[in-house]
Amino acid sequence: MSAGLATTVPLASPHAHAGSSVSWVMAKVMLALTPATLYGFWLYGWPAVHLWWITIAAALLGEAFCLRLMRRPLRPALFDGSAALTGWLLALSLPPWAPAWLGVLGGLFATIVAKQLFGGLGQNLFNPAMVARVALLVSFPVAMTQWIAPVPLGSAGAPDFAEGLRITLAGAPSLDAIASASLLGHAKTELSRGVDLLQANLPALSFVGERAGSLGETSALLLLLGGIALILMRIITWHIPAAMLVGLALPALIAHALDPARHLSAATHLLSGAAMLGAFFIATDYVTSPNTRLGQLIFGLGCGLLTWLIRSYGGYPEGVAFAVLLMNAATPAIDRLIRPRIYGRDLKGRPLEIPEA
Amino acid sequence: MGLMEKIFALLEPAHWGVHPDDKKRPAADAPVRRLPLPERLYVPLQQHIGAAARPIVLTGQKVKKGELIAEAQGATSAAIHAPTSGKVVAVGDVTAPHPSGLPVAAITIEADGEEAWIDAAPAQDPFSLSPEEIAKQVAAAGIVGLGGATFPSALKLGLAKKAKIHTLIINGGECEPYLSCDDRLMRDASPEIVAGIRLMLIATGAQRALVGIEDNKPEAIAAMREAVRPRREIEVKPVPARYPMGSEKHLFSTLMGQEVPADGRTTDLGALVHNVGTAHAVYQALGKGRPLVERLVTVNGGAVAFPGNLLVPIGALVEDVLAFAGLKETPARLVMGGPMMGSLLPHARVPIIKGSSGILALTAQEAGIAPAGPCIRCSSCVRACPIGLLPLEMAARIAAGALSAAVDYGLKDCIACGCCAYVCPSRIPLVQYFNHAKGELAAQARAQLRNEAAKRLAAARAERLEREAKEKAEAAARRKAERMAQKAAEAAAAAAKQAEEVA
Ligand code: SF4
Ligand code: SF4
Fold first, then answer.
1. What residues have CB less than 8 Å from B85, skipping those under 6 apart?
2. What is d(CA B275, CA B156) in angstroms, rounded to the nearest whole number?
3. So what's the pLDDT on residue A354?
4. B384 part of a folded domain
5. pLDDT at B246
6. In this complex, do A4 and B330 lie within 8 Å of one another by their Cβ atoms?
């Protein structure tokens, strides 16, 4: 008998594995994003579809470019799904009819600058999709705020496949005619014009999102469901999303109760902008969020609170991206300060007292 | 409890550990088979924690089954007995049952096939023995912790007696996947285990015993309950199946609701933990006069044709065991012990020792062999760690060569349970990092001890030289002074004489 002489290299235990892998994790996140994305496709039609795949392709291209430059194997990194997910999340935060170059620039920037320059997967301090979004917003404020009202697939005036591709690649001919403001943007404009929110004619708030906004903004309900699925699949825990939503809703609730003319309601805050997308899919990014449950709660609260502050007092109508980036910067400090208690020790790491017999 | 502690307790409920697929059945349900006696048995002298045993037999000598062939050497050591009758054919090196595959000293016995026992003369009534006498006989029978720790049992009993413990905890957790030798023993030999527990209660002076059994072993729980029914001082306590429940600290905490302080032991809190197999061995020795020469070994894994539990003499080769159980395919990994903490075997020509709870022949898929990727900071390892460590941070520090930073993160508290690596989606060999670092630190500590000793010697030498030089200088000065004095005296005398002559 040749009794299994397969291994000669001493390897440490364990000799078993739960079976998870990085690409599996990324695939599940994408799965959870799918319903909201498909719904967004239906709402905004072919231009949104084209922007989506172009952004993802650009993110993958950026990743491949860097790997080639560093002479690292392409396959493992490209197929782990992390670059595609970054592109996907970025696409969801862009105006659905944005021109292709915006998605290309953003996708390349996300993987090349925000991820690979930091050392690749696991090394980046900031969420790559949000870094790219903020970079685009700062550089191209007009293109980044050209929202359109939904034109569901199949409805009159919805562009077909080819027309959609033309809009994405060459820009919409009459974008001004169909342009519309997002709810948060509209509120901000009205407030700055001196019109208070009680008089302003705000677009109707809707859970199913038939209003202007990014792909990821308009289907808050589906994103919420996707996020809950992620929690149930144990890809993320409830700590960051719950804390972020509370951090956003609580100040909104108080401010709205005190001064409804100047502050949007908590429900509006939760269902607008990238709140849901941010809470479940962006702030929960493993690499850029804390490792402990308490740290994650603090991080989530910070994201929510900062989002509300920026939306209410900042120069931009939307604040999720900025808030997440700011809390990303705080993550190393949170992880240094907050560590789990070690068995048999107190929080400071001193051994528990041995009781006198 | 401070506020922070309270917040933590709320946030971090007892969610330690992992829930691996236990893969215990069908092996656990198959009746025990006896391994046919191999022609030769290779009995290592070091099967326990502590000093190796000293052989007391010579090549060519005939031995009976159960005869003492190597005696304990020093305080922490264990005696070793012949696992079968036959002839000693060698006292020399064989491969160690350890990933290193380095040679270890062993006594090789050629079986005569008679299985002739020594004249076993058990104590008339072992339950009337004094605690000291029980410990002495446990030591004489070569009994060590059979859960895998292999610490000499008699020593543990004696320490517990001194520490005046009140509770004896019997570990029937068997939380490692695949293994079922303790399960089988509890199902088949519960009265003997209970008898062993009673003897250990006497030996330690504890008032009660708690038998912790994971709730994935209902048959064992039922059998043990039945066996302890007449004994009010022994209680069977089902515990949730969760890895590493069989870790001494975690079983203790689960049963007693207390944590073992980081620099203490369970005996500091009044409890001693022993394995069910050890309790069984204690009764075998004291009740039947049979020293520890064989044990139940689980043979399991995807590559095994007929998995189950085998009664194996100590010193049988893994090869013999696998040949009997049959292999369906060439295993990707051979493991001694469980998959979570067992050691990889370099090949199958290594002997079964007292601490061998299982032999696993795993397929590549079972062993989870996959290339490691970068850490994605998913914190799965943090949630899984039963000690509350940050495996990702420790591994990052070790990879960067910053060992002392890893120690700051609690490296020395790591029990190498493998939960972290088990869940890591990037398949990072975290335990490998930790073992490596612990080995480095131990080497550094030894080197430092050596350095300090050398420094002390050098200092002593320098001091001696200085002292000698000083003494020499003083002596020289003294002699000079004496000479001067003499000269002065002579001069004075001469002057006086001159003066006399002049006068
Ligand atoms: S489980 Fe693995 S990938 Fe996840 S944080 Fe721990 S070491 Fe990193
Ligand atoms: S091996 Fe160490 S670090 Fe990993 S889970 Fe176990 S105790 Fe924690």
1. B62, B63, B64, B65, B111, B112, B114, B115, B116, B117
2. 12
3. 83
4. yes
5. 92
6. yes
Measured between CB atoms, which of A16, A18, A24 is closest to B366? A16
Strand partners, B111: B86
pLDDT tens for the 503 residues of chain B, in order: 456 555 555 555 557 889 999 999 999 999 999 999 999 999 999 999 888 999 999 999 999 999 999 999 988 899 999 999 999 999 988 877 777 777 889 999 999 999 999 987 776 789 999 999 999 999 999 999 998 788 999 999 998 989 999 999 999 999 999 999 999 999 999 999 999 999 999 999 999 999 999 999 999 999 999 999 999 999 999 999 999 999 999 999 999 999 999 999 999 999 999 999 999 999 999 999 999 999 999 999 999 999 999 999 999 999 999 999 999 999 999 999 999 999 999 889 999 999 999 999 999 989 888 889 999 999 999 999 999 999 999 999 999 999 999 999 999 999 999 999 999 999 999 999 999 999 999 998 888 888 888 888 888 888 888 888 888 888 888 888 888 878 777 777 776 666 555 54
Residues 360 through 379 of chain B touching chain A, CB cutoff 8 Å: 360-362, 366-368, 370-371, 373-379
CA of B409 to the centre of ligand 2 (A): 12
Give B375 Cα–ligand 1 centroid separation in angstroms. 5
Angle at B355 between CA B349 and CA B359, to 5 degrees: 50
Q: How far apart are CA A345 and CA A153, in angstroms?
A: 61
Buried b (16+ CB within 10 A) or exposed e, A67-79: beeeeeeeeebee
Instruction: Give CA–CA dist B503/B496, Å, rounded.
Output: 10
Q: Is residue B249 part of a domain?
A: yes
Judgement on whether residues B148 and B275 belong to the same structural domain of the protein = yes
Q: How far does chain B reach from its first CA to its final CA, in angstroms?
A: 105
Residue B332 to residue B302: CA distance in whole angstroms: 10
Strand B271-275 relative to strand B294-300, pairing: unpaired
Q: Report the number of distinct structural domains present in chain B.
A: 2
Contact A253, A308 (CB under 8 A): no
d(CA B434, CA B456): 32
Average pLDDT over residues A172-181: 56
Residues 136-165 (B) with a CB less than 8 A from some CB of A: 163-164
- Asked if residue B374 belongs to a domain, the reply is no
CA-wise closest residue to A137 among A95, A178, A175: A95
Beta-carbon separation of A14 and B346 below 8 A: no
d(CA B245, CA B253): 10
The total number of structural domains in chain A stands at: 1
Integer Rg of chain A from CA: 23
Q: Based on the domain organization, do B234 and B145 belong to the same domain? A: yes
Within 10 Å of residue A169's Cβ, how many Cβ atoms?
Answer: 14
Instruction: Examine residue A105 and state whether it is found in any structural domain, yes or no.
Output: yes
Distance B74 CA to ligand 2 centre (A): 33
Q: Which of B460, B461, B403 is nearest to B435 (CA)?
A: B403
pLDDT band at A2 (very low <50, low <70, confident <90, very high): very low
Query: For the residues of A307-319, what is the DSSP string, one character each?
Result: HHHHHHHSSSS--
* CATH number of the domain encompassing residue B270: 3.40.50.11540
Question: A303 in a domain, yes or no?
Answer: yes
Residue A295 lies in a domain: yes
Average pLDDT over every residue of A13-30: 93
- DSSP tag of B77: -
Burial class (CB in 10 A: 0-12, 13-18, 19+), A182: buried
- Which residue range forms the structural domain that includes residue A332? 22-337
Of the residues A2, A5, A8, A13, the best mutation for testing chain B's interface (the one with the most B CB atoms within 10 Å of its CB) is: A13
Tokens of B349: 């020509």
Range of the domain at B201: 3-9+17-36+127-312
Helix (H) or strand (E) holding B490: helix B430-502
Give the H/E segment covering residue B476.
Answer: helix B430-502
